[in-house]
Amino acid sequence: MKTRILITGLAFVSAISFGQKKEIKKAEKAVKSNSYAEALTYLGEAEGLLSAADNETKAQFYAIKGQALLGPGGSDFTKLKASAEAFETAISLDPKMKDELADPIQNLRAALINGAIKDQNAQQYKLATEKLYASYMISKDPSDLYYAAGNAVNGKDYDTALKYYQMVLDSGYTGETEEFIATDKETGEVKAFESENLRNIALKTGQYIKPEKRVTESKKGEVLRNMTLIYIEQGDTEKATALMKTARAENPSDVYLMRADADMSYKMGDVARYNELMEKIVATDPENPELYFNLGISNDQLGNKEKALEYYTKALELKPEYEAALINLAALKLSGEDKLVEEMNSLGNSAADNKRYDELKIERQNTYKEALPYLEKAYNINPSNQNVVKYLMNIYGQIGEDAKYKEMKTKLEAMEAKG
């Protein structure tokens, strides 16, 4: 009797297994004919019996489920995420599925990444982060994590950003890639090609010369910089300092880590150290106007007015239309005005005081005239900058340029009326 029960039981299990596989096969055929809703119906019938199935059958079930969800998924993140989870489960149950699912996984990644780009552009950073992380879960490509962390930073979800950045570092990802480049013979512009073959084809046209290979910049410095700045934002300067110290010890000449260290020093109020580091960074990239501009700001804060003036001037030599540098240089020229006004107001009515007053008045006029060309150029670059218009109105009023004063006053009133 026991033997008969056992045989009956085995037959029952076999029947369940056969019925389950039958529904999965039906679902597979439905997916191939693009009947995704029908496929999900079959899978729903098989799912209740799934616990008794072997791993191979379960993997097949989740692989088909992922494809059925992906098919009509479009931009529906709920379906795309469920598809990613199904693919991930299928591969965990049967690693061979990774090769079999290569094409649908590629399609899913494209849908998730394209969706994340749209979300990022719309400043929907949380959704962009989730989509990129879902892409990482099926691709295991750390670049997905890197961009997910960046969106988390933009969305001020700092805990998530730190978690993902740490995972990026643990993976060894640097973002460095090999590029095949050549120089346009006419323009001198260096162009990167998608492959060595495409670069070689371009060379044969005669338009390009100087074929070379180069490695793109590492993203490790940016990752560490962002992590340290997040720690500082959270008030954890100890972790920020320790992280940067370790990173710099490993790569003391890495310029991107130097930038990260400089940014951290500035954020922590150590302007002198920031200035020291920036001097070293400038030596590695002496044609970068942004570096000189930043040095201008830090030297100004340290009270090194002459150095600040030198750096702003250098930034403008490299980039004559640098609006921010023009404004800051003009502000630096005007920074001594308060002392002049204070002394003028403190003078009495003696002959000596009147003489000194006239001297100070001329000095003040000269200060305005020195600053004026920089503000006028900034205004020509960007006439909608309200602060520049206000500066110009005040200066024109002080130096007796009545017509220009009225013009700027009218413009300023119109700007203020618009809010």
TrEMBL record:
The keyword Methyltransferase does not apply. Transmembrane segments: none annotated. Keywords: TPR repeat. SUPFAM superfamilies: TPR-like. PROSITE patterns: TPR, TPR_REGION. TPR repeats lie at residues 289-322. Coiled coil: none annotated. Pfam families: TPR_1. This is Tetratricopeptide repeat protein. It comes from Aequorivita soesokkakensis.
